[in-house]
């Protein structure tokens, strides 16, 4: 697979980062005053990246 030097629309990790950032923005009031360890915070964010979303990102990028 050939990717140009920087092509965020073809780079699937950019879609995952976008999903995680959206989750953080949507639930920011919960995390701002929380004493939750960073590992728990990361786990909560990664739950927002579902297999269905990943499959959609693959289809959208043209890999499937």
From TrEMBL:
Q: Which GO terms describe its molecular function?
A: nucleic acid binding
Which Pfam families does this UniProt record tie to the protein?
DDE_3
Which residues are the signal sequence here? none
Tc1-like transposase DDE domain residues are 1-28
Query: Could you tell me the superkingdom of the organism this chain comes from?
Result: Eukaryota
Write out the coiled-coil annotation as residue ranges.
Answer: none
Q: What is this protein called?
A: Tc1-like transposase DDE domain-containing protein
Q: What is the species of this protein?
A: Polyporus arcularius HHB13444
